[in-house]
Amino acid sequence: xxxxxVDQVAARVxxxxxxxxxxxxDVRSNAAMCLERRVASMCxxxxxxxxxxxxxxxxxxxxxxxxxxxxxxDAAAVKIAQAERAIADGVQEIDMVMNIGQFLSGNxxxxxxxxKGVVDAAHARGVIVKVIQESCFLTLDQxxxxxxxxxxxxxxxxxxxTGFGPSSATPEIIDVMKRxxxxxxxxxxxxxxxxxxxxxxxxxxxxxRLGVGATATxxxxxxxxxxx
Length: 228
Known about the structure:
Elements: H1 6-10, E1 13-17, H2 24-37, E2 41-44, H3 49-55, E3 62-67, H4 76-89, E4 93-97, H5 100-104, H6 108-123, E5 128-132, H7 140-152, E6 157-159, H8 171-181, E7 186-190, H9 196-205, E8 209-212, H10 215-219
Parallel strand pairs: 1-2, 1-8, 2-3, 3-4, 4-5, 5-6, 6-7, 7-8
Helix pairs in contact: 4-6, 7-8
């Protein structure tokens, strides 16, 4: 296992502020923590992008948001509209959920076009796109196929999980992502990262970002009891 400083791990963290019960004050307090700990980004719900952009303005902490979360089942045109709204509100990175049901139905052309619509809207404004597979619903062969669709659609990252599914990132899933698209795309492990050892193990595997809900606890060497 590699040696990482707290600052090095923090710089790979997308801090998740996504629970449905979170209030405006929760967004504000989490933004303060993100600024203090110097994480890569604060990942918020679409309705919170404008506030997050205000709170994180003139800092190195980026604003990221989820899109079509957590099921990926919005119509393609709605996803594009969501992306455009988030970009107008100040988002810098978008974590979109792949249409899981369409993928499992074998409608891969639909899924590729669905992703590409968001990618095209985002890249036109210099915004990064991460594609969440919700890999817990997929076999490892399906993870590989979903990675290829994301690559073909022009996305920047593949990402394991929303954190709201029945399971989260696993080393086996990351191994497949690295093998299939690791030379051409970045990888984000998300969900279930509740302690330092898990975080650095994924970094050792070569992931570029970590989706973490209990960021302060993880960075301080504790173990989070949160389900996310």
